[in-house]
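Comment thread on ticket #2218

A.B. wrote:
> Attaching the input chain for the structure job we discussed in standup.
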Amino acid sequence: MKKSASLTVIGGDMRQAFLAQLLSEDGHRIAVSALERHRFDSRIIRASAPGFGMDAGVHAVILPMPAERDEGMLNAPLSNTSYHIQTILDAIPPGMLVLAGAASENVRSHAAQNHLHLIDYLAREELAIRNAVPTAAAI
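C.D. wrote:
> Ran it. Output below, let me know if you need it in another format.
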């Protein structure tokens, strides 16, 4: 029997929306926030501020790549609202696993202050290399 997880996806572009859909199809409980402009099927829970889908059963939070855009804002082009990245990180319970891509020093330091277990998935060599190919092709 496959073990399922409860995950919250906050912000991002179509990559995050697609990830949320794939995880849901795999049987995981998925909540999304700051992705209002994307249409999800009924299995995915729509969450909003102030909790951003954080409940007692959440195992991990997935932030976009990059997690933060200029001026300390969450990278959330599919959201109807702008959020400061610190507001998002403050809503996440201490000790929570947080996955983010290209986490800035601001994101890393605020996550550490909030006792969050932050993993920068772009720092993984296999993703960094695979991401470099389409990025270079677009140039």
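A.B. wrote:
> Thanks. Noting for the ticket: The beta strands are 6-10, 29-33, 45-46, 60-62, 68-69, 73-74, 97-100, 117-120.
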